[in-house]
Amino acid sequence: MAGDDTRSATRSGLIASVLVILALVPIYIAVSGEDSPDWVGYRALYDGFGGWLLATGRDALFVKLLDFGYALFGFEGYGHFRLAIFLVILVVAAWTAFMAPKQTSLGAFSPIAIALAVATTFLLKGLVQIREGLAFVFILIPVAGMYGRGQRGVVRSVVGAAVASAIHVAEAMFLALWAPALVASRMPRLIADWRTRWAVTVLGVAIGVTVAWALNHLGDTLLWELRDYSIDTSASPTTGLWKDAYWLFNGGAVFMLRRQVLAAVNEARPFALAWATGLVCGALPALYATCLVLATSGYAIPAVTSIAIRLLYTSMELGLLIIALRGRMNLITVALAGAMLADRLRLLASQM
Asked: Is 70 exceeded by the pLDDT of residue 236?
C-alpha cells in the first residue's frame, strides 16, 4: 500500500509539473517583447549596468546578476538574459508542483489543483516581475522544505530571506518574520491558541493602518524622492465602486487563506507552525490593511501602493502554496486559486 501511495504521489507530481510548464511557456512567448513595460524597464537596467538600482545602492545581488548577464550575453543579449531567468523560475515552479503531495480531498483532480496554485504564483513573477520572481525563489525553496515532505528549514529560511532581500529589498519583510517565528516556536501551545492568533491579527491590522497613515502623511516627501530615483510617478490614483468591490473580494480571500493555512499547518513542526502563523495572522492582515487604505483613499503615489500590493499578492501566493505543500487543497482553495489566477491574467493583460 505504501508503494502504491508513493507511485500515486509521484505520478500526481509529474502531471502537475507538466501542466505548469504547459501553462507558463506559451504565455511567456506571448508576452515577451517591447510591448511590455516591465520588459522595457528591465532592458534599461540591463543596458545601463544596473541603472537607478546601482545609483541608489539597491538590490545589489540583482545588479551583480545584470553584470554577469551582460558579460555572458553581450549588448544584444537581453532577450537571452530574460529567457535564462525565466527558465530558472520555470524549473523551480515545476519542482514545487512535483514536491506537492497528492491533495487527498481532490482525488484525480489533485494535479490540476496543484498546477493551478503554482501557475497562479509564478504567472507574474516568472513572466513580468522577474526581480521579484528571482527573490521569491529563495523564499520558496526553504518554505517547500518546511511544509513539504522533509519539514526542515529553520536555517535555510533565514539564509533564503537574506538572499531574497539582496535581490529585491521589499522581500526583507520575510526576513523580519524569522526572529519572531523562532521565538514563538518555543511556545507552540501559545501560538496554536485561537486567542493568540486573533490578537496577532488585530495587531497586524493596526500596524497596517498606521503604515498607510504614515505613507499618506509623508506623501510629498516620498513623491520627490521617488522622482529623484527616476521612478515613474505620473500615474493617477483611481477610486470607485469596482475598486471597492475588488478590495472587498481581496479581504474575503485573505480571511479564507488565513483559515485554510492555519488548518493545514496545525500538525507542522513548531517553527513551521510559528512562521505560517506570523505570515497569515500578522503580515497578511497588515499588508491588506495598508493596501485597502491606500487603494480606496486615492493615495497620490500609485507606485508606492503598487509595492504594497505586490507584497500582499506574494504573501497570498505563499499561503496558497503552503496549503498545497501540506496536501490540504480542497474545492474552496481551488476556487480561490482560480479567482487569483484570473486576477493575475487581468493584471498581465493590462500591462500589454
From this structure: no
